[in-house]
Each structure stands twice: as C-alpha cells, then as structure tokens.
Amino acid sequence: MTRVFAYCRVSTSGQTTDNQIQEIAAAGFKVLQTRAIVETISGSTAASERPGFKKLMEKLEAGDVLVVTKLDRLGRNAMDVRQTVEALADLGVKVHCMALGGVDLTSPAGKMTMAVISAVAEFERDLLIERTQAGLARAKSEGKVLGRPRALSDTQTADALQRLAAGEAIAAVARALNTSRATIMRVRDAQVT
Q1: Hey, which residues are catalytic here?
Q2: Which residues have CB under 8 Å from 102's CB, separation 6+?
C-alpha cells in the first residue's frame, strides 16, 4: 500500500503549518500524523540541509508519495527545487504539488512543468543580472564611486603607516584611528606588496 507523506514548512516561529495540513487533507490525501513532517526554517536553506527534510528522506521508500502545498515549501531557488524533486524521483517517490493542481512532479507532465519553471527562473535571473550591470554602468558613467566606502582617508592611511613604522601595535593604531584591527592589517599588507 502506498504511504503518503506531507512536508509542511514555514519560515518563522510566528507562522503555523496548520493551513498546509488542512489543504492537503481537503484535497483527499490521507496523511497519518507521524507522516506529516513540519519544519520551521527559511526556504533559502537548501532542502538537503534542513534537519526535518533530512529525516523525511530517511523515511521515504520507493512507491511513497510526498505532498506539498506549494513548490516554495521545497525551496525558493528553482534549481534546488528541481534537484530535490529529481532526488525523490530517483528514490521512486512521487511528488505532488497542490498549487499546480496536485500534479505529480515526477510524471512526464510534472517534468515538463518543472522544466518550464526552471526556464522561467533562469530567464528572471538573467534579466536581473542584465539590469544590475546596466545600472552599474550608468552609475559609473555618471562618475559615481562604486563599492564599499574606504575605511580610512588618505591622511589616516599615512598616519597608520607612520605609527606602524614607529613600532606601535596594530591594536593601538586601530584604537587611535577608531577602526578595526583588520583594516590596519590591510593597510600594512597593501604597503608591503
């Protein structure tokens, strides 16, 4: 007999998975309480790195069914979702997504859906990179200085180098210039090269 599991995830402790469990039950999936995996963790954490999902993977066997309410329960990144679905398919586990009409993502129609979702995600990523590069180029052409602001002015850098050359400790120089030891070490190391 086919075992049905549910994976319900929320991002913060102020949220609840009750709606996800009810939605799965209303769709006709009978999930035993012991087979409903509930987890509070950010979707940006890869599924393979989530403690609850790892335990779920240990329980799943060929012929089982995993139900999620939305694809983003498996991850925010389309590539991570695809890898997770492929890993489950390799185990012989069917993955049903309620938001996609309950389609089995491991079936031919589900694979096509995943391919379209992945293509759209890649397209959006490429557009974002293109817009970012165009914005950086425009800012540069307007004479804007890009990157993180310098921690020390030229005068402060010269002062730091003088103090170091006089034998002052890195920590003392950092305190005197109201900056971090790491900044003083970078100034020192840049002078050496």
Answers
A1: 11
A2: 27, 96
